[in-house]
Amino acid sequence: MTTPQENPPAPHGQPVAPADGQSALVEEVLRLIAPLTDAAANPMALARFLAATGWRPEAAGDGAGEQITDWLEDVAAVVGALQQAVENPPQDLDGLKSLLGTVGRAVQVVRTVPPALADLDPGRFAEDVVHQLVADWLRLHHPVLRSTLLLLGVLVEEDPATGGPAEEPVTGEDGAAVRFPVTRERVRPERLIELVRDPAGALRDAYLPDGLADEDAADAFAALLLPRLAGLLHALGVD
Fold first, then answer.
1. Which of 42, 103, 119, 168 has the fewest CB atoms within 10 Å, i.e. is most exposed?
2. In angstroms, rounded to a whole number, what is the distance separating the alpha carbons of residues 132 and 129?
3. Which residues pair with 177 in a beta bridge?
4. Do 162 and 238 sit in the same domain of this protein?
């Protein structure tokens, strides 16, 4: 009598890892970059996405608009490769390696900055795009996770109009604003480390930086905490 192996090798021709797991990974990446896929096919979707990021590429000078179009075409090409990966999961280690390479290329393409914008502020456009994609992905597909990250202070809303951090303007050659202040949601992964190291201290810094010295401080604490708690309960289906 033989003893069954805990992890028997995959039969020849079978995926080296659960196909559902591979598809789930690729589908999440597709969801993440879906706003760019929509923007590549729909000028109105492009205008909405750029407005959400606070960028006006056309103010960067001649050629910027065309560079955005080329960038979106590159994104669309990577999306096509990812969709093929969902329909045809890897069957061996070489296929899995190719899949991971495709996912890596998708991330790299998204982070590539059109030259006209890179000349103005290298990295800022890519940073804003990535944060906007993550914010949309959380809001549309993972509302409970989003509400939890907001509650923990890992996802933060920055609004210059209501006391958020001041932003240095980005202007084109003629002085026109290329990047303008908007409300932005930012993921702060370093706060996860702070929560692990000192949970009470991290939450105190997020909600009670000056303690509960007076009634105004208590009101500010409640105004910050209660809406986030309500948002989490709503995401969990508790109304």
1. 168
2. 5
3. 171
4. yes
